[in-house]
Amino acid sequence: MAVMDAPTTVDDRPGPTDTLGRAMRDLRISVTDRCNFRCTYCMPKEVFGADYAFLPRDQVLTFEEIERTARTFVSLGVEKLRITGGEPLVRRDLPHLIEMLAAIRRPDGGEIDLTLTTNGSALRALAGSLAAAGLQRVTVSLDSLDDAVFGAMNGIDFPVAKVLDGIDAAIEAGLAPVKVNMVVRRGVNESSLLPMAAWARETGVVLRCIEYMDVGHSNGWRLDEVVPAAEIVEAIAAIWPVEPAEPAYRGEVAGRWRYTDGGGEFGVISSVTQPFCRDCTRARISAEGMLYTCLFAVEGHDLRALLRSGASDADLGDAIETIWLRRGDRYSELRSQATSSLPRIEMFAMGG
Ligand code: GTP
Ligand code: 5AD
Ligand code: SF4
Ligand code: SF4
Predict the structure, then answer these.
(1) CA of 174 to the centre of ligand 4 (A)
(2) How far is CA 20 from CA 5, 281, 329, in A?
(3) pLDDT (tens digit, 9 = 90+) per residue, 128-142?
(4) What is the pTM of this model?
(5) Ligand 3: lining residues by beta carbon, under 6 Å
(6) In terms of CB atoms within 10 Å, which end of the chain has fewer, N or C?
(7) CATH classification of the domain holding 76
């Protein structure tokens, strides 16, 4: 098997690097495995029905445990914290957690990038208090502007207008830039692509089109349902010419494209057709405190056991560092029949 290329640029900031030379810069923290939506590509309602057993409360990390874990990761070089779920806004008192996380400083005294991915349904209620607590920006998932298409994809007929109102609330609260994630699925919401791009250009939000991924094992993923990023760019560029934009930071997930008429930019996340593992600096913590070093990891590392057994901050830091030093994940680059049948953790459980 071919050896993966070296990371594209040298990162000489402090912190552990894994077996493929990648540093640890981003931590995605899932604060709950619950969600009020049942998106067909994530938590199909046939599988996640009323009797599905989500985590009992005592198995979910407390705010204090999350803060301590995040602080330890930041001491090891993490610069971005992204709060995810499930749907993070269903976790009670979330602004309080944001306040705790916003107080964490990097070893060089710099601020961390603190952000959150949400389905937008509770943003009207919470955007103001999240911003006041120190949240800097948000990413909202929205797959179509057409109620019939969106309602079928979110599985509960949740109306588009309510998500748009949540996005307005985020903009009003200054949670900028607002990014909007759209999972594009062949034959399902392809026809929503150009209307979404037109709307994003008018509204000033940054649209990011995501290739449908084979995460988890419940969504019945098929390669022929993936709309390749190149096709998405071509369709948009046929209407509004674009030019490639430089990545905003090393290891950026989205490929960025700028409209040549000054209408802003959009991004494509091409995990299937053009994997970006070589610059992957992301760690993930599930709501129950498992550390995963890849979105497609088969197993995690139990940090909760450590947190609840009296380990010191130094012990916790050592454990995390050891795990990262051994990391060699690059699933998207190896994606194949052989790997696709391995058991996986659902994306909502791991934190997107
Ligand atoms: P910015 O900080 O705004 O650049 O965010 P981001 O690019 O990290 O964005 P976000 O967290 O919204 O990620 C967008 C989507 O990209 C996720 O929801 C996933 O679908 C996908 N994604 C993010 N990280 C990874 C990754 O490490 N591997 C793969 N395969 N997909 C990822
Ligand atoms: N493929 C691609 N993106 C997905 N997301 C959830 N499941 C999938 C999948 N199978 C996206 C959501 C959200 C983010 C957390 O991940 O739409 O924007
Ligand atoms: Fe919920 Fe997000 Fe999964 Fe949809 S993609 S079911 S909103 S966690
Ligand atoms: Fe990172 Fe794993 Fe995604 Fe590759 S597949 S980019 S290693 S999370």
Answers:
(1) 31
(2) 9, 11, 9
(3) 999 999 999 999 999
(4) 0.94
(5) 35, 37-39, 42-43, 85-87, 119, 141, 348
(6) N
(7) 3.20.20.70
